[in-house]
Structures are given as structure tokens and as C-alpha cells.
Amino acid sequence: MNYNPVFALLIFFAVSFLGYLLFRPRNGWFWLIKNNLKSNEKTVIEDILKQLYHGENSGNEVNINSLTSALKFNNSIIVDVIKKMSINELIQFEGDVLKLTNSGRDYALRIVRVHRLWEKYLAEKTGYAKAEWHDMAELKEHELSPEETNVLATQLGNPIYDPHGDPIPTKSGKVADVNGEFLSSLAVNAVGKIIHIEDEPDVIYKQIIAENIHIGSQIRMVENNNQRIVFYAEGEEFILAPIVAANITVAVLEKDEIVEENMVRLSSLKENETARILGISKESRGDNRRRLLDLGFVKGTKISIDLISPMKNPIAYLVKGTSIALRKDQASKILIKKD
After folding, report:
1. How many CB atoms lie within 10 A of CB 337?
2. Per CATH, the architecture of 39-100 is what?
């Protein structure tokens, strides 16, 4: 039999395409089948409760159609579970709108508590990228018992907010306030601090991550209209669509609350410039933050560029007589004031 390279190439692309359909993240056939097989009634109940909780908090009405669109379960399974939840008085109907009962809300708060504690754990104790936190917490929120959840909270120091700025419900169900306004509503020339970044929908959250926008950053609004939002934060200009900016919450600062006006990111430092370190962004957490402090990136320390790699990433900085290489994303979390 003669070898036909064209035929072999067609086979290769066919196999590759089939592999993509089977194993593409989240929506591949393999994952959809696996998720359906592994899903159980408890998981479906808890996902429904959480959807209703978030819907009620944001003022959006939730019905069966919106639930079947949002959740990755078979529609008949969702409908059957809703009937059981109604009988067990976790939810109630107001027309075609689903509402949480008091018992349902308490249960939903327990799930939200696990989810946000787990995201805090992933941010503080692991090296996982922030884009992965939400999906990983979605799995773990169904696994931890109330006792295990309380142990996790204690290990983390009973945090009030998760790494996105969302309040973590206490074990008694109390939820702290998030007092601020959407970035898309901030007046021109107003100064604020980013206190919350919404992690859903995923496509908008990933765009915010790609822009390297940080929790805790002080910002100044320079342009706000229906086409774009323009603001400065830590020496850099950011331009967002209003729909993206609406997923960021800021606390407006008074004049006496405004911190160092000339604070910029270390990633903006150029050759032959010197600066003093003002601090480390809240975006640097846990072991990564401790490592930077141990390496000498502490307030008041003089810093300059020692060596630039051919691709300009990483860059080696001279700190207390030692040359330390940092990637650009690491340097963006160190705040300086140029001399």
C-alpha cells in the first residue's frame, strides 16, 4: 500500500478535531458526560440555591428558564430537583419566579461561605492563577462539611472578604457590607480605591485580569462616557468598556484619605532611574508576599534596574546590594516613588 501524505494529513486533522470536541475545557463531550455522571442531587440543590442567592442580591428575578440556561445539568434533573426543594421548603414560587425561603437562604449562605473561603485559600496558600480560583472553588464548595469549613476559616484567620472583595459569610450567616459604587458610575476627577472585582461572567473577569487591574489600587477617573471609561492607577492609564467597568467597585476617597499621589508600579521603572519602595500591593498575597519581603522589598528601600533580559521580561533589580530578577507581573505588584 502506497503512503499518501494528503490522506495522512486529513486523518491527523480529523483526529485532532475529534479530540478537541471530546476534551475542550468545560464544554467538551468528555467533560459534559463526566460532569453529568458525577453530578448528584446535593450538587444540583446547592447550585440552584447559590444562583437564587446571587440573583436576589443583585435584584434579578430567577425562574426555571434562567436556571436551566445558567446551570450545566440536564433540564429534567433541574426541574425534578426544584420540585423536591419546594416540598422541603427551601424555595417557594411567586408566580413563575423562584424565591429562597429562610431555610433556603441559610443553606445558600453556607455554600457561599465555603466557596469564598476556598478562593481565599487558593489565593493565600497556593500558586494557582487567579483565573482558576472560581472554577476550583465551584468543585470544593460541595465537598466540605460545616466542621471542615470552620476549620478552614480558622486556619485562614476568619477573613471577612475573599480575594475578589466579596464578603465571606460567618458561620452564623452574617455578611459584611461592601460600601462603594461601580467604577462605571465614578465622576470625572474623583479619586477612589478598588474594593471589589466581580468574577462572573468569566469572560469579563478574564479581561479585567488581562488588564492587570488590582484590588486595593487607588484610581483617578479622567473620562467617563457611554463609549469608554479612562482612569489612572499607580502611574498607568487604563481604558475599559463601560460593561467591563461595571464589574469593578470602588470606594470614593475624601481628600484626607488620598495616599501618595506619585505612587507608581515598579514595572514602570526605567534604566538609570532610582526609586524608593512604598509598599507591596494587596494583590500580592500569602507566600509570594512573604518571599518579596524576605528578599528586601520593604518600605523605604532604594531600588534601581540592574539588568534587563533580551526579551525585557524578567528584569533584575538592585535591592540592598543584591540583584533580584522579577517578572513584569511580579514587579507590577511592588509600589514605588521615583526619585
Report:
1. 14
2. Orthogonal Bundle (1.10)
